[in-house]
């Protein structure tokens, strides 16, 4: 048994703070959360004066199998699976070094994400708990086809979905619209699958109690994703051939459905703004703001691994993504909620992690300062526990590039 005491304990629910609080942990699980003295006695007591303890952060959208600099198409033929798996392990280590204790990997080739997920759970390597989608379902030559999930009609969609689930996928990813990064794919503003086809994916996942993440930039793809009943919409950029065009009626539909939206904002945002200019990013920020006003449930997820317009988006830039939510008008308490409780729920883990509650996994972080005052304090990590296991990585030297 171990007690962790801190000046502030945030449960994860909006604004809920226990001043001078403590958490009792037994192995991988939380036993109790309350004010000083509530946990009784324990041999191991950690006093964190001036610190805040909160649930481990959740990144609902990563690609550990990508490197920021190398074109995935070229590398597909040049990098072995063995080498790639080591790269993924390093990306997972960096992710946990930013305080991320759960991440959803939304696309990897050859089921390597499952190998990594299991190796982390066995303690062979350091990283967050992973929720793995394996091969994204996409049309022939469509967005990210090179990950092996091509399917054009209903029977083929069912087959790829079932194969992913048979291999051990925790959720399914479907490319409802086109996207950047794949030369042969339709553009972002074009739909790849209609509502009926998306429904097939949702149906297959639901029979195993799993959720579906739909990549959707285009208006029609966003609408179809809601109609089909997916769990999360990724990007949701309202993209057209002439840029972001926010549609309030469509946003109302998303809000009313309760579908989570992961707008995939990340630590590279400011650098992209410098390279590619203000206008497009401001338009996107306005969409995120407007979705907040409309009551859309947005969650944190960085799309880490994908370079955006040749700007790196490494896996440890997570807090930079939260700062973009602040730029879009979110308050710090809301940001903590969308980075913990809401993101965990969207990943299908609401019962297991995402808040500090008895019986949940001891996935938590401690930071110097108070993130409710300054979201940047989330960078001052003093402790990272993944299922009670200490995985602090702050002093590890690495040869791969990082962002703060
Ligand atoms: Zn992605």
TrEMBL record:
Pfam families in the cross-refs: Amidohydro_1
Lineage top rank: taxon: Bacteria
Domain Amidohydrolase-related: 52-391
InterPro entries: Amidohydro-rel, Metal-dep_hydrolase_composite, Metal_Hydrolase, Metallo-dep_Hydrolase
Xref: SUPFAM superfamilies: Composite domain of metallo-dependent hydrolases, Metallo-dependent hydrolases
Listed PANTHER family: ALPHA-D-RIBOSE 1-METHYLPHOSPHONATE 5-TRIPHOSPHATE DIPHOSPHATASE
Protein name: Amidohydrolase family protein
Organism per entry: Nonomuraea insulae
Lineage: Bacteria, Bacillati, Actinomycetota, Actinomycetes, Streptosporangiales
């Amino acid at each position: 048994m171990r007690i962790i005491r801190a000046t502030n304990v945030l449960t994860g629910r909006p604004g809920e703070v226990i001043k001078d609080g403590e958490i009792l942990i037994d192995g991988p699980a939380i036993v109790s959360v309350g004010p000083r003295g509530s946990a009784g006695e324990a041999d191991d007591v950690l006093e964190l004066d001036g610190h805040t303890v909160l649930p481990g952060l959740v990144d609902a959208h990563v690609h550990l199998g990508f490197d920021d600099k190398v074109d995935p198409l070229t590398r597909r033929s040049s990098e072995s699976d063995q080498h790639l798996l080591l790269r993924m392990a390093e990306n997972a280590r960096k992710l946990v070094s930013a305080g991320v204790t759960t991440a959803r990997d939304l696309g990897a080739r050859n089921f390597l994400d499952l190998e990594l997920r299991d190796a982390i759970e066995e303690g062979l390597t350091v990283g967050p708990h992973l929720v793995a989608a394996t091969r994204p379902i996409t049309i022939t030559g469509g967005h990210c086809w090179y990950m092996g999930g091509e399917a054009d009609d209903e029977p083929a969609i069912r087959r790829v979905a079932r194969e992913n689930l048979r291999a051990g996928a925790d959720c399914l990813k479907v490319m409802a619209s086109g996207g950047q990064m794949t030369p042969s794919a339709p553009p972002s503003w074009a739909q790849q699958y209609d509502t009926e086809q998306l429904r097939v994916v949702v149906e297959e996942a639901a029979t195993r109690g799993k959720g579906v993440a739909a990549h959707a930039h285009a208006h029609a793809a966003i609408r179809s994703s809601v109609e089909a009943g997916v769990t999360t919409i990724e990007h949701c950029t309202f993209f057209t051939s002439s840029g972001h065009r926010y549609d309030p009626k469509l946003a109302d539909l998303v809000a009313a459905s309760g579908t989570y939206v992961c707008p995939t904002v990340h630590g590279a945002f400011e650098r992209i703004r410098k390279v590619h200019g203000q206008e497009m990013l401001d338009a996107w920020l306005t969409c995120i703001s407007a979705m907040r006003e409309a009551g859309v449930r947005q969650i944190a997820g960085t799309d880490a691994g994908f370079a955006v317009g040749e700007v790196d988006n490494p896996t440890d830039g997570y807090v930079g993504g939260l700062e973009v939510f602040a730029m879009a008008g979110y308050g710090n308490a809301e940001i903590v909620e969308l980075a913990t409780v809401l993101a965990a729920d969207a990943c299908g883990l609401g019962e297991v992690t995402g808040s500090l509650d008895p019986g949940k996994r001891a996935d938590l972080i401690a930071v110097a300062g108070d993130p409710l005052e300054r979201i940047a304090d989330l960078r001052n990590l003093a402790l990272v526990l993944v299922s009670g296991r200490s995985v602090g990585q702050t002093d590890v030297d690495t040869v791969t590039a990082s962002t703060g």
